[in-house]
């Protein structure tokens, strides 16, 4: 895993925090076209962006993101080149991400699924590239 990372700016993090969804666009193997464009939920924890696959590791965009480790995300009219890494699955980080999902998406009918075992396992760390 490449541990040299560029961080999201405060303005970018604010944009992510203030939007309920972003569009995930992981690359196909050709690294120029996208596997799919999926609106997804994302959360910010300790200045980092995380997203979970609804169907766990069988989520189509998650499979492409983990295979290619690169793509783009869009928020509104803004596109960002990204790289994707599996989140470090410490009990502390998983709990923080789950708490962030509960806080941001409180009252949403899909929340119980997003904090269940499969999606928790399929948590990606979304980084600028």
What would you note in describing this structure?
With 129 residues, the protein is α+β, with helices and mostly antiparallel strands. 31% of the residues lie in helices and 29% in strands.
Largest sheet: 7 strands, antiparallel
Range of strand content: 25-35%
Quaternary form: single chain
Distance between the termini: 14 Å
Number of alpha- plus pi-helical segments: 5
Neighbour order of strands in the largest sheet: 2-1-5-6-7-4-3
Q: What is Rg?
A: 13 Å
Order of helices and strands: HEEEEHEEHHHE
Global structural class: alpha+beta
Q: Mean pLDDT, as a whole number?
A: 92
The backbone outline, from C-alpha atoms, is globular
How does the SSE layout of this entry go?
Elements lengths: L9 H8 L4 E5 L11 E3 L2 E3 L2 E5 L7 H9 L1 E6 L2 E9 L4 H14 L6 H4 L2 H5 L1 E6 L1
Antiparallel strand pairs: 1-2, 1-5, 3-4, 4-7, 5-6, 6-7
Concise structural overview:
The chain is α+β, with helices and mostly antiparallel strands. It contains five helices and seven strands, in the order H-E-E-E-E-H-E-E-H-H-H-E.
Characteristic key phrases:
129 residues; 7 strands; seven-stranded antiparallel sheet; 5 helices; disordered N terminus; single chain; globular; alpha+beta
């Amino acid at each position: 895993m490449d541990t040299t990372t560029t961080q999201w700016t405060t303005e970018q993090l604010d944009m992510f925090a203030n939007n309920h969804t972003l569009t995930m666009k992981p690359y196909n193997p050709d690294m120029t076209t996208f596997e799919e464009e999926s609106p997804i939920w994302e959360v910010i924890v300790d200045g980092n962006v995380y997203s979970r696959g609804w169907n766990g590791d069988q989520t189509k965009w998650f499979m492409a993101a983990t295979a290619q480790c690169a793509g783009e995300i869009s928020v509104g009219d803004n596109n960002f080149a990204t790289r994707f890494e599996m989140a470090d699955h410490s009990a502390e980080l998983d709990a923080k991400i789950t708490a962030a999902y509960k806080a941001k998406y409180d009252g949403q009918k899909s929340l119980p699924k997003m904090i269940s075992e499969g999606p928790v396992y399929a948590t990606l760390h979304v980084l600028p590239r």
